[in-house]
Every structure is written in C-alpha cells, then in structure tokens.
Write a structure and sequence with these properties.
By secondary structure, the protein is an alpha+beta fold. The chain folds into two domains: 163 residues, no CATH class; 184 residues, no CATH class. Helices cover 59% and strands 6% of the residues. It contains 18 helices and five strands. A five-stranded mixed beta sheet has the order 1-5-4-3-2, sandwiched between helices. A hairpin with a 4-residue loop joins strand 3 and strand 4. Helix 11 packs across helix 17. The longest helix has 27 residues. The radius of gyration is 22 Å and the shape is globular.
C-alpha cells in the first residue's frame, strides 16, 4: 500500500540510530514491537511525554513498519489492538493540551500510527461500497450528539430494523476510516491521516468502553446496593437540588456550552479537557452557527432551574442537570480544571481519570445508554446501566448519592 511508504517516510531519519529496523538482524516480531510502541507512548498522561521516550517510540514504529512489510505471519488483531491503544494514548495527550511545543510532533505521530493500523489491517474490503463508507464517516462527523441520542432512544423503543440501523456504531466508523484510507492510499497526506486518525482512535476508545460494559453488565442493570438512592418519593426533590447548583454565572456559562456541545456537529465541537468550549471553538460557532448559539445563550439566561421545570427538550434538561453537577464538582477554575473532576465521560470530553473507587458517569453514545460505575481495585463495578432520559436521571441520582 503506497500510503504507508509516503506517510512513514519522515521516520527514516531516525533509523540510523537506536532500535534496529531489522535489516541486519533476526526477523522482527510485529506484535512485540507494537506492544513496545504502546508502552512508550502510554506514559503518565498528567505530564508531558519525555522527548527521549517519544523518539524511541518513533524508532519502534519504523521497525514495526518494516516488520509489517516483510512478515507474512503475525497476530494481526493483537497488533491492531496495541496500535489502537497507542493511538488512544496519543489522542488523549493532544486533547489534554499540555504538551506545549510537542503538539505538532504528536499530531504527526498520531498520523503515522493511523498508517500503521491500515498496514496491519491489510487490504480489507467490506460489502459496503465507497459511497457507503463516505456516508458513514460524514454522518458521524457532521452529526450531533443530541440527534444521536434521539435516534438511539427511538430505536430502543421500536422493533423497526430501519430505526436500529440509523444508529452509527463506533466500530462502523473505525471500519470506514480504515477502508477509506486504504482506498485512497496515493493521496493520504500526514494531515489527512492525523484528522482521520483522531476520529478512528476516539471511536476505538468508545467501542472498547462499550465492550467492557457489555462484559460486566450487558443490558439494563441496577445494582441492589443502590436502591436507596432511587427512592421515588425523593426523586424530584433531589434532582431540583442538583439543578439549583447551576444558578450562578458559572452555572449559566456551563449550561450554555453543554447545550452547544450536544446540539452542534462533532466536527465543530471537537474534544476538550475543560467543561467550557475554547475561544477558537466559540469563534467558529459565532461565525457559522449563530442561531444555535443565540438559542443556547437565551436558555442560559433563563437559568437551569427554569429550564428544568419548563423545557420540553430532553437535551436542555440533561444540560441543566449536568451544569449543576459541574458546579458541585468544581474545585477552582472551571476554565482550566478537568470537566466534572474527570468523573463524566462524554464524547466531547477528554480528562485525566479520577481516583479509584469514586463514582463515574459514562454515556454509551451509539445506543443512548448511561452508565454509573466505579473502578474498584482495577475491576469495573457497574452500579446502574439504563437507556434514555430516565436512565440518565437514575445514573445521576446514584452518582450524587456517592459524592463525598
């Protein structure tokens, strides 16, 4: 495939030193090298990646390219998994935005990891034609989280196959990215690979998370240990208490930016660490989506409590609750700290993980399910997993009952 040779060419400058590329040594094991790449790019994400470790990783990537070109046997799925994990780690670093001068180098590394994924996958052809893959990718990038949740909720309530097929699974997006890069190998620039790689690795992480939850608690689930938090007699009072926390200037700003994050295309919203949108994103929204911005601004001025009581939009009401949670979990500057203390996993957030055993709230985007869970000594414990708006409220109630 021609794209690999072009995209990985910048690495050749590193091949004269460090790790052997295999030209004059024993046959290289692709899986071992891929795992080494993963280890070297998966250092503590709270600190910038050491330059020396980054250089070692790129030398290993060059070795892996050579191994993939020469070997006829390797555990392709395991190689793909190691590369996907490495790519997720790099994409996370870029989203956390503390790499300073290394940002462009990391974007290049992300692009090259994407090229290696395509190499490891081989010339995979699916039953879909080119237009279908383009449609899948565009549907994801141009779609909104609010619409995805609406479609997922409708699919959950319907037996119609067309409703179910309307939901785009992250695995399908990954497949389309690989297919499209493979198809247009001759024109795959580093910039194109970086942009498509960001989508691929983000969706890979989402698919892995969903698979993990499916293994622990497939389908709707409520742990017997959290029954008290779901007392129907106190439900409305507790939810109003959470929402009322957003009745402040900070709460209004969070409410506005959360609504924009749900209502605007993924390509516009992007991924961020803080709860508030960046200045650059706000500028683009002001220029290209003024009507949505005005609507969200007016909603924020009315306040979270009013919207919770009067709005008929589930997106607005979800945003009101999450705005209250954002204020409750904030410890200092909402413009700089991790959104919701790192405890809320949404497609547009990328934060440092919180301490073990604390409750977390995660959205499984493709099927509209909300999960309240915690990490107990490296083991995932699901407390609630339910779809739709009511599922969201159940997860929030259990989540807040465990906040100290």
């Amino acid at each position: 495939m021609h794209a690999q040779a072009v995209a990985l060419a910048p690495m050749s400058a590193s091949s004269s030193s460090g790790e052997s590329t295999g030209a004059a040594s024993a046959p290289l094991d692709a899986l071992s090298i891929a795992q080494k790449v993963h280890r070297r790019l998966s250092a503590d994400p709270s600190r910038p990646l050491p330059v020396s470790e980054h250089h070692r990783a790129t030398r290993s990537m060059l070795s892996l390219r050579n191994a993939l070109q020469t070997q006829t046997r390797y555990e392709s799925q395991d190689v793909l998994m190691a590369l996907a994990c490495a790519g997720v780690a790099v994409a996370r670093r870029l989203a956390l935005a503390h790499e300073e001068d290394a940002v462009e180098d990391l974007r290049t590394t992300l692009a090259l990891l994407m090229a290696l994924v395509v190499m490891a996958a081989g010339d995979v052809m699916s039953g879909m034609d080119l237009r279908d893959h383009h449609a899948t990718l565009q549907k994801y990038q141009n779609g909104t989280l609010a619409k995805t949740l609406e479609v997922a909720t409708d699919a959950a309530r319907s037996d119609d196959w067309e409703d179910a097929l309307a939901c785009v699974h992250p695995g399908e997006v990954c497949q389309s990215v690989v297919w499209l890069i493979n198809f247009d190998a001759h024109n795959a620039s580093v910039d194109t690979l970086a942009k498509m790689g960001a989508t691929f690795f983000r969706c890979s992480a989402a698919a892995t998370a969903q698979s993990l939850f499916d293994n622990v608690a497939p389908g709707a689930f409520v742990s017997m240990s959290v029954g008290a938090a779901l007392d129907p007699l106190r439900r409305q009072e507790q939810l109003e208490s959470i929402v009322s926390a957003a009745e402040s200037e900070a709460g209004q700003t969070i409410l506005r930016d959360l609504q924009l994050s749900f209502l605007l295309p993924r390509d516009v919203v992007g991924v961020r660490r803080a709860v508030l949108l960046s200045r650059a994103t706000n500028a683009e929204i002001t220029r290209c989506h003024p009507s949505v911005l005005n609507s969200a601004h007016e909603s924020a001025l009315r306040g979270a409590v009013w919207e919770w009581s009067h709005s008929k939009s589930e997106t607005v009401r979800i945003s009101a609750v999450l705005a209250g949670l954002g204020v409750l979990l904030s410890s200092s500057d909402i413009r700089k700290e991790d959104a919701h203390a790192g405890r809320l996993a949404l497609p547009f957030f990328e934060t440092l993980p919180p301490q073990q055993s604390v409750p977390r709230l995660t959205l499984i985007e493709s099927n509209g399910e909300w999960v309240c869970w915690r990490n107990v000594n490296g083991r995932v414990e699901v407390l609630v997993r339910r779809p739709g708006f009511d599922g969201f409220l159940d997860c929030v109630l259990v989540f807040t009952s465990m906040i100290k």
